[in-house]
Specification:
alpha+beta; seven-stranded antiparallel sheet; 17 helices; globular; binds flavin-adenine dinucleotide
Length: 473
Amino acid sequence: MSTVEDLRRIVGAPQVLDRADDMAPFLVDWRKRYFGQAQAVVLPSSADQVAAVIAWCARTGTPAVPQGGNTGLVGGATPAADGRAIVVSLKRMRQIRAVDAANATLTAEAGCTMVEVQDAARASGQLFPLSLAAEGSATIGGNLSTNAGGVQVLRYGNARELCLGLEVVLPSGEVWNGLRGLRKDNTGYDLRDLFIGAEGTLGVITAACLKTYPLPRAQATALLAVPALPAALDLLQVARAACGSTLTAFECFNDLCLTLVERHYPGHASPFASRSPQYVLLEISDHESEVHASGLLESLAGDAIDTGLASDAVIAQSTAQRRSLWSLRELISEAQTQEGRNIKHDIAVPISEIARFVAQTDALLQQRFPAGRMVVFGHLGDGNLHYNVSPPEGMDADRFIALQPEIYSTVHDQVHAFGGSISAEHGVGQLKRGEIARYKSAVELQLMRALKQAIDPLGIMNPDKMLPAQSAA
Ligand code: FAD
């Protein structure tokens, strides 16, 4: 019996793709840096079907690569080029199983997109606060497997902090039902936390019990032009003191980011009369009223201009204006892609060290790779920057990408020296497997391998992702 026939018996014939054209979108990552092959792409519709598929993988020794929206940025959902694996796409598992407003929880299947979960929460008068630019396609299973961050971590935490319980299909094909909606549960090892951020290497998440929050009464959004990164960091301290927990987003980007958005998305332009080296997008989510929210933001922006922390400010006066300010931030990643190939770093350092980190690392890069263009933006309020480098104008992209190992080690050595992380929110996938071997201690790597061996002794779950090859450490 062939692989495809076996799988068709489990999930139904139309849900197993094996023609090259049908499989193609599942075999390349969002950035088109990794191209894989697979025996088939399988689209189960229930946890039982996922369990039967994975049990079949265990029996036949077939690698399984879980995939959600395929928006990951580190090649984690792309199978290897040897074509042995099957891709298990969770796209058809998109039921909202329960909404419990009194418990402030919502239980969603792993293939629900973030927008579907946000909408379901809103329909019950609640907020599901996880939000990022790919939210129309990215799934809850992918968010949890990468422990995604996004634009409201400052207030609500990352995906891990928003998850109370999980349902997981283990590499044996057994189902672990840990879908508990408890805020307190000290009954042994926290199994849930093992699977969050595991990038599909320990099992397939099939459903999650997620936290919801009261919907804010009003949101006020401002874009401020700031003279430099240290001023943006001072502004963060001022905003925190003035707004407390109503400060829900504090994002930054440099002027080149704005230039790229304007160049590749002509409908989107700077609202300021003159250019500024840096910009801060900040948002307040208020539980009192529109008047209170806009009053708070107006006084914050006015004080920032009076004290020289900002040179100009625009406060959104309507939902359309709010969306338009956010789009300047959200389009940066795609504008950089349109500009051409580039080298991305998803780094975190302590907030107090960010300005020093950027100044020193910029100087080092300029010394070693003159004229590289720094496209730096991110979640300043979380100490997380997308510290990206585009080639100098006119440089051949392949020649530039060949410098990736040297640029990586320059930036990542700096991150390490500043006590930071080389993967703040995107995960490790294929892109940074080799890199983490350089920075994780032998004890950490040994513990990670011991966990992998205990849970997936056959090594069938998303092999060759996240954990460095044995020879690398
Ligand atoms: P996929 O890409 O399909 O998979 C990602 C990883 O999770 C893979 O290793 C895969 O094997 C595994 N996986 C997927 N589903 C499951 C499952 N059900 N069970 C087990 N493993 C699974 N990320 C951020 O954190 N913050 C941002 O601000 C952010 N902004 C982005 C902006 C853009 C424009 C884009 C394209 C991406 C951005 N990302 C961001 C990255 C990406 O959107 C997130 O990592 C997202 O959480 C991935 O979800 P997905 O469903 O697309 O996962």
